[in-house]
């Protein structure tokens, strides 16, 4: 099974900033946006193994244990083909 944690570019940039890694400070919005589009196109066509695509725009499984539990519970379910999961946190 492959798990793709998908997010929009604004969310990805926010996550990069929150990590505070020096090596990531020069990464541009345009680069992340283009990279995200390539991954989305790749996984749109992906059929090699079961695939779970999780939209992570509205959850924070790094800092919110309930969000993490929800994601773990979802990926533990049997999967065939492609499944999409769009969880919403109760911040």
What would your notes on this structure say?
- This protein is an alpha/beta fold.
- It has one domain.
- It has helices at 9-19, 29-45, 65-75; strands at residues 2-6, 51-55, 82-85.
- A three-stranded parallel sheet has the order 1-2-3, with helices on both faces.
- Helix 1 (9-19) crosses helix 2.
- The N and C termini lie far apart (29 Å).
Q: Topology of this protein?
A:
Layout: E1 2-6, H1 9-19, H2 29-45, E2 51-55, H3 65-75, E3 82-85
Parallel strand pairs: 1-2, 2-3
Helix pairs in contact: 1-2
Give the tags.
91 residues; alpha/beta; three-stranded parallel sheet; 3 helices; 15% strand
Summarize the structure.
The protein is α/β, with parallel strands linked by helices. Helices cover 43% and strands 15% of the residues.
Morphology: flat
Mean pLDDT: 93
Low-confidence stretches: none
Tally of separate helices: 3
How many strands in all?
3
Order of helices and strands: EHHEHE
For the biggest β-sheet, the strand order reads 1-2-3
C-alpha Rg (nearest Å): 14 Å
What composes the largest sheet?
Answer: 3 strands, parallel
Helix/strand/pairing class, anyone? alpha/beta
């Amino acid at each position: 099974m492959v798990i793709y944690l998908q997010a929009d570019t604004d969310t990805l940039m926010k996550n990069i900033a929150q990590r505070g890694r020096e090596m990531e400070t020069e990464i541009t919005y345009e680069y992340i946006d283009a990279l995200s589009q390539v991954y989305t196109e790749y996984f749109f066509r992906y059929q090699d193994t079961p695939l779970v695509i999780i939209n992570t725009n509205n959850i924070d499984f790094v800092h919110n244990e309930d969000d993490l539990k929800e994601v773990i519970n979802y990926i533990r379910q049997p999967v065939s083909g492609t499944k999409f999961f769009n969880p919403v946190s109760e911040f």
